[in-house]
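FIELD: query
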Amino acid sequence: MTRYLPAPARAPTADALRVFCAGANRTLHDVALTPHMLDVRWIGLDGPSTQRVFELIRQGDKRGTFSLPWIIEKTGSRVPHVGNWITLVDLEGRPVLLTRTVRVDSAVFGRVEPQHTAIDGSSVRDPAVWIPLHTHYWNTHLTPFGLSVTPEMPFWIEEFVLVYDAENCGITAAGG
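FIELD: result
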C-alpha cells in the first residue's frame, strides 16, 4: 500500500481503510480488496478544491491523474500500473473514491500537448491552463525534496475509471 501524502493532507487510519475496503467489497462483488492493495492519494490544493475534484470524477469529467517519478522515487511509492487501485482521500484522510487504473502513459513536462491533459477536468485541459496550474501544484510537492519542476521533468498520465464512491452508497456513474 502506498500511504505517502503531501502536506497538508492527513493519511487515513488503518481502520478507515478497512471500513472503506469492506464497503467496496460489498458493492464490487467480484473483488476482495484489502488495504495493502490500495494506493492512497490526495488530489487538490485544499479541502474545497479536493471536493471539486471528487465531483469532476463523479461526473466523468476528470478521468485520471498524474504522478511524478521523482516523488515516487523519494517516497518509495508504487510505480503506476494498469489495474492499480487508487483510493482518493479528502484532506482529513477519509477515503472517499476508489478508482482503477486502465492506462498509464508517460510524458515530459516541457512537451505537454492536449493528448496528455485530455483526462483532466475540462476547465484545465488546455495546456495553457494546465501547465501553470501543475507547475504551482507540483512545485509545492517537490519543494520538501529539494526539487522543482523543470522542462525535462517526466510525469506519468494515469487514466482511471471510478468504481466505488463511499459517499454515495457505492453507486458510481459507471454503475459500480
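FIELD: remark
The radius of gyration is 15 Å.
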